[in-house]
Structure formats: structure tokens, C-alpha cells
């Protein structure tokens, strides 16, 4: 049996690995959720493959560190990172990673009395279940939904940046809150 992938997945090995092993797989790991939320924000105005090709550099500069460390980056440290072509050289997007780390820390503190973590809070938007969509063609999948709009508003209210409803929907797809593999795709779960 040959592998069938979603039509958006090119023949780039990096894209195929991402599609086959990560995209649409349920993640509750807070470090991974934070990384993906930030990377989806980095994508704004760009293709996802561009971000994937720069992911190792983002990991080197940001995501190898605990969220508390990322929250402490100064503006000067972030501006110095603009010299590296391995990153998307947009100071607003780089500052958003730091600002999102600060917002993540604040949200963590707010959730402690409820004995919740940020993963629980994020997954509450889909009632802690993966939403399975009928996707005959990826172009028919929504770019945003009422849930991604609600998540976007909630994140913005908490101080997160670059988290519009389309970015939030892409995040939900990436971390498996929504399962949008095309119906013919070998990796579609039922």
C-alpha cells in the first residue's frame, strides 16, 4: 500500500516528516504547545515551509530554553538576533515570542488556583477532545472557526501576540486539537 498524503504536503522531506509525524497529532506537552503557538505566529504572511526550514534556528535561539528564560530576553538581545538569516527578521515577531512567554507565565499563575495548566486551558476550547473534520480537499478546510476566534480573543486578552483566529486555527491543526487530514490521507485518524 502506498502512502497517500494531504495535497498541501510537497515532496520536501522536511514537509513530509512534519506532515507524517507531527501535524494533527494530539500534543499536551506545554513546551511543544508554546513553540507551535509562537511558530504559527512567525508564519503570518509567509508559507509554513519557510517557518519549518527556520525551525532549528528558532529552537537554538528560543525553544531550547524554559519559558521563564525566554520571558527575560531584553529588546537588545532580540534586536541582536535580527542579524541571523536563520530567523524571520521581523522585530515584532521576535518580540512576540518573548511577550508570549511572559503571557504564558502569567496565565500559568492565574490557572494554579483551579489546578489547571496552560495545556488544559488550551484544550478546554475543544472540550478536551480532538475535533475530526471531513476534509475531501484541504482547500475546503476552514481557515478559521468560531472556536479559533474564541481562542484568539482569549489569548489576546491574556496578552499574547500574533494570535489571530487564522493563526489559532493553524495552531489547533498543528497540535492535533483539530484533525484536518484529507479524507484520502493515510494519516487521517477516525
Automatic annotation (TrEMBL):
GO BP: any one term: base-excision repair
- One Pfam family, short name: Adenine_glyco
Group of enzyme by EC: hydrolase
Ligand binding (Zn(2+)): 6, 19, 181, 185
Q: Which UniProt keywords apply?
A: Glycosidase, Hydrolase, Metal-binding, Zinc
Cite the EC number.
3.2.2.20
Superkingdom, according to UniProt?
A: Bacteria
Q: Which protein are we looking at?
A: DNA-3-methyladenine glycosylase I
